[in-house]
Amino acid sequence: MDLNTTVVYVENENMSHRSQFEVLFHEYASQLSAEIKNTIVSQLFTLPYFHGFMCFVDNKPAGFAVCFESFSSYRAKKVLNIHDFMVSEDSRGQGVGKVLLQGIEQYCCDNDYVKMTLEVDDANVAAKKLYSSCGYEDYQVALKGQLHWQKYLL
Question: What is the third-level CATH fold of 5-142?
């Protein structure tokens, strides 16, 4: 089945983008066990390092990604981290996730990013299959001896 898909970079000033992004984000948040504040989208749109992407199928929002820009001091280039990634339930299994990832990758190639990163829950088999099919691999496999640590401050 051929889909009429488009990936767009979310423009912070575009109210249509903002409202469509908010609808997708609320669908995503409803599936999480953590409580998400209703103001999160407004907060995201104020962050200078926030990059949002949406995928449309037949002009309907079908998926989104919340991304944050950082910098690799080793490579002296920008890095884009996909922090949240979601395909709407009614669009799953149709290749929308792959199209969205490819659109984000194209943006990164066009804007001189050195790499893209993401996190995935080990139990999310479908997501791991998608990411692997798009060339992503576990850091700990790719960089033996590299551990990724964190400390929550709140």
Answer: Aminopeptidase (3.40.630)
The CA-based diameter of the chain, rounded to the nearest angstrom, is 47
Query: Which residue, 76, 68, 85, is CA-closest to 114?
Result: 76
Average pLDDT over every residue of 106-113? 96
Note the pTM of the prediction, 2 decimals: 0.89
